[in-house]
What does this fold into?
Amino acid sequence: MAPRDQVPSPSPRSSTFPHDLPIHATPRSLSVVESIYSQSQYSESSDSTTASSVDDSRPSRSLRPGIYVPTVTFFQAETEDLDLQTISRHAVRLAQAGVAGLTTQGSNGEAVHLTHQERKLVTKATRNALDGAGFHAMPVIVGCGSQSTRETIELCREAMTSGGDYALVLPPSYYKGMYKADSLVEFFEEVADASPIPILIYNYPGAVSGIDMDSDVIIKLAKHPNIVGCKLTCGNTGKLGRIASSVDAVTPSNEGSGFMCMGGSADFTLQTLVVGGSGIICGLGNIAPRACVKVIELYAEGKLEEAKKLQAVVARGDWAAISGGIVGTKSALETYYGYGGFARKPLPRPSKQDAIKYASGFKELVKLEKSLA
It folds into this structure.
């Protein structure tokens, strides 16, 4: 596969790991975040930037191997309005833990519960918080999946004007019974043609009525110059290995073609790396970002036995995250870190017994996380 130097946004990737980009500049106090927002969160004036002006001036932020966290969206407890201050502080906490990048509007971000305007505000708040704390080089990936090609492209454009660097796109599924053999290929190619930012393919059968894109389809789509990666939440490491090998994916030790072949769950981080993957986009990073990062660092240093032991703890914690979903993750954040709140209705609020159960499931992992601080 030819080097991916035709992609409009990313710059050439570093071949070192950990990185030589200034992502871990010493952050300023979190008080920076608190003063970013002076206007109403529902003001249309906050999205006045045009696509052309952003395209001319926006910095280029490369994706690199590592852990990417699909961030939680936080709400005011009584009104369910966006809690932009907590969204911002959480983003900075994750950046300080050493993750490679953040993802907004994912499953953990309750994208399906947000309006277009709220999506833009969450991404803007995240980008502003990172910049305000000194993490200018950290990329933000934005979930942009929708049921029509037209709206998906619109979401990609809105992601760019809100400060997003890449778009993570699920295949549409509502009318899957009417699709032809090439419908999904055409969908991704048309979105990639029109998107002002590079896209990553998101394969998550559980979220799209069982649609499970095979390795042949993803390898074919990887040839598009504006498709720069994939996230496989299907958990099929055989598929991941086939894709990574075919596209010469970037790894912690090899720059490769630059294509990012990502696993979608922290419980198979080490497995992803062994078969040639680039890293993980994992919701567990909201709870234990340092532990997730440490697995990759140990692997990159050749400390496989230590990595295996740590992976086992991470996998047990990830089962708590998978079992409890976003409700359990928010509950655990509240228990262990003092913030988290609740998901938007109709998702339930956990009972006291639920909260105890969720906390118990994460206890071992949080102990490890705090030991790494």
Observations:
- The radius of gyration is 19 Å.
- Strands lie at 66-70, 101-104, 140-143, 166-169, 199-203, 227-232, 260-263, 279-281.
- The first helix runs from residue 31 to 34.
